[in-house]
Structure formats: structure tokens, C-alpha cells
Amino acid sequence: VQLQAFGGGRVRAGGSLSLSCSASGNIFRIDDMAWYRQAPGKQREFVALIRSDRSADYADSLKGRFTISRDNAKNTVYLQMNGLKPEDTANYYCNAQILSLTASEEFVALNAWGQGTEVTVSS
Predict the structure, then answer these.
(1) Which alpha helices (DSSP H) does 32-119 contain, by range?
(2) Is the dihedral of CA 119, 17, 76, 52 positive or negative?
(3) In 3-state terms, what secondary structure has residue 7?
């Protein structure tokens, strides 16, 4: 099972970016999908989470600017980021709770991470 993130880049303050992250491999079911971020010299922090029923939670500081969504048919989670600020500069990582069905027909629960995509916001 693999998660691959896309969409990072450079933008000026006030601009927008959209990230996407797709899961592939032996996937039986995907439960929660989430985004985290890690700024230089800081710990990784929670950004947003979306459940399979599309209910979502956000970091308090990001509510109203960021929107998480998912396409269950495509095993993909998105993050729309508006009104970006220099302090949003970070590597953004997607995360998913995946139930995988192995070749031996066993279920394995995975906490999968994408490779990170860099977002830079200039003032």
C-alpha cells in the first residue's frame, strides 16, 4: 500500500493551493484520512481529518481557511488551502488508516503515510 501526495509549491501570502493524496495497492477499505504538516525546526502537527462518512475535524487555527475532502472511489484525499500565510510554510503529509487484504487473504490494518509535499508561502 502506498500514499502519494501532489500539489505543493510556492505561493504568495493570501494565495491558495490545493493538495491531493492518492492511495494505491491492496486496499480493502480506507477509514480516516488526514493531513499533517511539519515546519522547519518544529514537530509535526495535525491539520485536518476526514472520516469515511465525510465528517471532518480541523486544527482550531486553520478552521475557515483549509478544507479537507475525499473521493472514496478514487481513494484520494484533498486539502484546499486558502488565505495562505507565511506560517503555513511546511512539508504537508497525508495519512490514512487502511485495511489491506493480503495475498493470503488476511486483513492487515495499516497506518500509512505519504512522502510529503512542500508548501512555501512568501510574504
Answers:
(1) none
(2) positive
(3) coil
Strands, E assignment, 1-123 = 2-6, 9-12, 17-24, 27-38, 45-50, 56-58, 66-71, 76-81, 90-101, 107-113, 117-122
Q: Which three cell numbers stand for residue 53?
A: 462518512
H-helix or E-strand containing 87?
none
Q: Could you report the per-residue pLDDT of 43-80, keeping only the tens digit for each?
A: 999 999 999 999 999 999 998 999 999 999 999 999 99
| Class of residue 80 by CB neighbours under 10 A (exposed 0-12, middle 13-18, buried 19+) | middle
Give the three-class secondary structure for 86. helix
Q: How far apart are CA 53 and CA 48, in angstroms?
A: 15
CA distances from 62 to 36, 48, 97, 107 (A): 12, 9, 22, 35
Q: What is the dihedral sign for C-alpha 60, 32, 23, 73?
A: negative
Q: For 11, how many CA atoms within 13 A lie in the half-sphere containing its CB?
A: 20
Amino acid making up residue 120: T
Task: Convert the pLDDT of each residue in 94-104 to its tens digit.
Answer: 999 999 988 89
